[in-house]
Amino acid sequence: MKRALLLGLSAIALMTCAGNDSYAQPQLGQVAAYYLRPSLVVNTPAAVAGRKDFVTSFSSAWGGDPDTATIVNIPVKKVAPDSLGCTAGTGNYLAGHYALVFRGTCEFGAKALEAQNRGARGVLLVNNGAGLAAMGAGAVGANVNIPVFMITREEGLAINAQLNAGQTVTISYFKRWGRGLPNDLAIAPGSMPLPHAQVIPFSQMATGNGSPAAYRNYVGAYIANIGTATQNNVKLRATTTWYPSTGASMVMRRDSITTTAFAPIDSIRDDQYLMPVNFQSEHPPNTSQNRALQRAWYPRLGQ
Questions:
Q1: 41-50, 75-84, 258-267: which range is least confident on average?
Q2: Which end of the chain is more exposed for a tag (fewer CB within 10 A), N or C?
Q3: Nearest C-alpha neighbor of 259 from the set 226, 237, 228
């Protein structure tokens, strides 16, 4: 049986304002580049898990190339005897680990070389200012052959706190969106189009306004084949459910679209279609102006 990544995406649009009936076609185009870029991920624990912003020393022409390294669920360990990693430690106490090192006192290259000499597989270097910074090799960086990542101060402090609490922190790095699995499909987070301003016009629910024209909104998502095998009959199904402030919910629309063959090219498909729904005629309004529309997506991928 194929291994599929099943994602459920939902969005809530609270309709608490009276606007006009104009709308704009949703713009989906900017999420692809973000989610297809190389990713540094903290796997565990849950408190700090997720993708992290980073830069590498390799982009400054020193250190190991992370794209050629196998970095999957590697544990992280603090350097000793202090957090700066400038003072020589003893033995290979970092063997099999990524070293967590804070910026300051000595050069980036010196910190990385010391971690390498203690057996580290790589370095997580925590910035001491806002954002990220380029890392110069300094006097000894040319001798470093392990990957060196800089992460933000906020992320580094959070990881350090978990290590201080006795938690096991593990990281992974992927040079593209995908983890080498044969059957692996996904929906890009944030790619679901929402109604303009995440609301629908109040005229759709106002009492005594007759039967307004159906409100039109695009539905769809960016789908990516992040695996290594072609997938057939990939289906994206959308369900629009009306949740009134009182009374029972009502399914107003179900639609689906199928892609017959989806090659493993790590690219994005934009499958979207126009969905007109008249909320006033489909479900009688009540006196409350606070309504909620939940648009829940149930993709069935890799069938």
A1: 258-267
A2: N
A3: 237
**What local confidence, expressed as pLDDT, does residue 97 receive?**
98
Output phi, psi for 235, to 5 deg.
-115, 135
Cβ atoms < 10 Å from Cβ of 90: 8
51/116 Cα distance (integer angstroms): 25
Spatial CA neighbour of 192 closest among 291, 123, 275: 275
Give the pLDDT mean for 95-119.
97
What distance, in Å, lies between the first and last C-alpha atoms of the chain? 9
Tokens of 46: 């849950």
pLDDT-derived band at 160, boundaries 50, 70, 90: very high
Angle value at C-alpha 37, between 32 and 42, nearest 5 degrees: 115
3-27: burial string, b at 16+ Cβ within 10 Å, e else: ebbebebeeebebeeeeeeebeebe
Give the tokens for residue 13: 């649009």
Residue with tokens 């997506």: 297
- What one-character-per-residue DSSP string does 153-222 give? HHHHHHHHHHHHTTPPPEEEEESSS--S-SS-EEE-TT-S---GGG---GGGT-TT---PPPEEEEEEEE
